[in-house]
Amino acid sequence: MNTILEKLYSHENISTEESNSIFQEIFAGKMDPVVFSSFLTALKMKGYSADEIAGAATAMISAATPFERTTSMEIGEIVGTGGDRLKTINISTMAGIVCSCLGLHIAKHGNAAVSSKTGASDVLTSLGYNIRAAAPLTRKNLEEEGFAFFFAQVYHPGMRFAAPIRKALGTSTIFNILGPLSNPAHVNYELLGCYDPNMLRTMTEALKITGVKRALTVNGNGMDEISIFGTTRYAELFEDGHIEEGVFTNKDFGITESFNQKQLEGGTPEDNARIARDVLAGNGTAAQNAVVAANAAGLIRLSGKERNLQQGFEMAMEVIRSGKAIDKLEVLNHNSNLEVAA
Questions:
Q1: Which domains does the chain have, with CATH numbers?
Q2: Strand-strand pairing, 232-237 and 189-193
Q3: Are 182 and 64 in contact (CB under 8 A)?
Q4: pTM listed for this prediction
Q5: CB neighbours of 114 closer than 8 A, spacing ≥ 6?
Q6: Continuous H helices in the chain
Q7: Residue 109 burial (CB < 10 Å; 0-12/13-18/19+)?
Q8: Least confident of 15-19, 70-74, 209-213
Q9: Contact (Cβ atoms closer than 8 angstroms) between residue 20 and residue 53
């Protein structure tokens, strides 16, 4: 460990294997708190490499509560790192449910609020979804209905060993970006919103190392989502392993109206649940509908169902206007609250 710390103090990157080994110790509760604190601080001061992030994420997945999935079924995820401080509505959660109405299978991995006032687990709880549903119920929703939620606190018990140190440090650490790379369902493709536009390629490379086949890492005008105001910078991972970087504008999605950040503001879990119900029932505002459809289009692109963003946007808008998504939500809620035979 001293050798690794000396590397970090000298601003040298450590390998995927070294990172993985250290985080295995962390998630097993075997690391001395003082050494642990020094490691996190030195790593942050140096800056994170793709290898370091991927090594930590793979260790986190290995330490997670196992979830058996159907291997023949492609699974996607839409998630944000949080940390953009914009307090928006729960865009990715709504987009995931919309995509499930189009035949996609989305494993939404999340926790309590990070950058919004209301995280995915908060809004889903307010909507009536049992975020602590037993694995058979989660599997039923994922395989039969196309959407399931994986609550980080249920699937990553090893994080309890990190909590005291993170609290004592009182600053962001590598743990703040590990969640989106640590889905226990082992996703094939992912739309990842990143709070830092300078981390887009690094995060995409980390996803590639962890085994994700196709990915879009985006920062939309400072938002960890695809934006409908201003431009969205992105890094895209393709099936053959190469990565391209670029910029999306509203024109790419066929959006002609002008919107602003204030139109996407969220509130309490109850506020965001009400907004989510409105959007999923086809009664959202133009801005709310558009941002959900734009992010759904990104996920549809990655799934291979429709790579053209404008076509994907229209497919998502059709689902939203039809009200099918609110019916889907009710089925998901019902299934998540079923009793599991002992």
A1: 2-62 (1.20.970.10), 76-155+169-334 (3.40.1030.10)
A2: unpaired
A3: yes
A4: 0.95
A5: 81, 82, 83, 176
A6: 2-9, 16-27, 33-46, 50-62, 91-100, 120-127, 135-140, 152-155, 163-169, 200-210, 250-253, 269-280, 286-303, 309-322, 324-336
A7: buried
A8: 70-74
A9: no
As given in the structure block, the two tokens for residue 40 are 């996190």
Evaluate whether 100 touches 140 at the Cβ level (below 8 Å): no
Which own/partner contact pairs does 47-50 have at CB distance under 8 Å and 24+ positions apart? 48/174, 48/177, 48/199, 48/202, 49/13, 49/14, 49/202, 50/202, 50/203, 50/205, 50/206, 50/208, 50/209
List the beta bridge partners of residue 233. 219, 247
Q: What is the pLDDT of residues 5-41, one digit of tens each?
A: 999 999 999 999 999 999 999 999 999 999 999 999 9
Q: Which residue has the tokens 């690094």?
A: 202
- 10 Å Cβ neighbour count for 30? 10
Per the listing, tokens 């999340």 go with: 110
Does residue 281 sit in helix, strand or coil? coil
Q: Which one-letter amino acid corresponds to residue 287? A: A
CB 191, CB 277: distance < 8 Å: no
> Between helices 16-27 and 50-62, what is the axis angle to 10°?
40
Could you tell me where the DSSP H helices lie in 174-227?
200-210
Closest by CA to 104, choosing from 299, 338, 235, is: 299
Query: Strand pairing partners for 223?
Result: 220
Q: Which two tokens stand for residue 301?
A: 């692109």
Q: Which candidate, 28, 84, 32, 95, places its Cα nearest to that of 59?
A: 28
Q: Write out the DSSP string of 164-175.
A: HHHHHHTS--GG
Contact of 72 with 41, CB cutoff 8 Å: no
Q: What is the DSSP-derived secondary structure letter of residue 31? A: S
**Which of 186, 190, 183 is closest to 76 using CA atoms?**
190
Question: Could you read off the pLDDT of 214-227 as tens digits, one per residue?
Answer: 999 999 999 999 99
CA dist 105 and 197 (Å) reads 28
State both tokens at 222. 């400072």
